[in-house]
Write a structure and sequence with these properties.
Organism: Holdemanella biformis
Distance between the termini: 74 Å
Order of helices and strands: HHHEEEHHHEEEHE
Mean pLDDT: 77
Helix content: 25-40%
Protein name: IS1 family transposase
Largest sheet: 4 strands, mixed
Strand content: 15-25%
InterPro entries: InsA_N_dom_Znf
Length: 253
């Protein structure tokens, strides 16, 4: 190994993983080349390392009665469930399974999402600031959609202090269904309608789903579909009360 190459490797080893990744991506972009497959494997190991503190359980039956069962092609640890006998890794059935992108790329996408960045802005940030080569708009959109689906499982916050509530109405829609069901007449079909067609029951009629939104003084928010049509006080109590730890309630309906 030449002295120059050895010095270069020494300097690379001094860099943080995220900085080294950025440097390699920048070099690949300047040479108009793909990121080496070996680096993709490194990404998988890096993601697995970030999950070291997570208790491993079977993604199929949720049992924790598991054993180690060798390694897969990329060198990731493989496990076998002693309850259902299925094999898996820490990434099985997660959005990170078989992902060619590193942990840093995923966290950057999440960071930009939480700052309300558009898909195009996220893509441009990854390309221009982090030198992520070969990433496309459909790929970024797919990553955003996968992360959005996970938000459903995030525990709801407790609301403190002054809490303000308001409702929003969304016209019931069954787009893409050949025989839509009439929400007002259980079990019966209704005729299809144009999206812009107004409801004959009015804006707050029973054809509109009512979403109750509540936000506290520090910005914690809850949004839940509570009923069809006009909202009642009982709907507020049943759906929002479990999240309240309040001093004063201000209701705007």
């Amino acid at each position: 190994m030449s002295h120059k190459r050895k010095n270069l490797l020494d300097e690379l080893n001094k860099l943080a993983p995220s900085e080294a990744e950025k440097l390699i991506n920048q070099y690949a972009k300047s040479k108009n080349k793909s990121v080496p497959k070996s680096l993709v494997i490194t990404y998988a190991h890096d993601i697995e390392k970030h999950l070291d503190t997570v208790t491993v359980s079977c993604p199929y039956c949720q049992s924790t009665n598991i054993i180690k069962k060798g390694k897969i092609q990329h060198g990731l640890q493989r496990y076998q469930c002693k309850s259902c006998c299925k094999k898996f890794t820490k990434l099985t059935n997660t959005i990170l399974e078989k992902s060619p992108w590193s942990w840093n790329v995923w966290t950057k996408v999440l960071y930009e999402m939480l700052h309300f960045s558009s898909v195009d802005l996220i893509m441009n940030t990854l390309i221009n600031e982090h030198y992520v080569v070969e990433i496309t708009r459909p790929t970024v959109l797919m990553m955003v959609q996968k992360l959005r689906e996970l938000f459903v499982y995030v525990p709801k916050p407790e609301l403190h202090g002054v809490i303000q509530m308001d409702e929003m109405f969304f016209h019931e829609s069954q787009k893409g269904i050949d025989n839509p069901t009439d929400v007002l007449k259980s079990g019966k079909r209704r005729k299809g309608r144009r999206r812009s067609e107004p409801s004959k029951y009015g804006t707050m009629g029973n054809e509109f789903g009512t979403v109750l939104c509540a936000v506290d003084e520090v910005g914690h928010a809850i949004a839940k579909h509570v009923c069809m049509g006009h909202i009642e006080l009982d709907d507020i109590y049943l759906n929002i009360h479990p999240y309240l730890k309040m001093l004063h309630l201000s209701v705007q309906i």
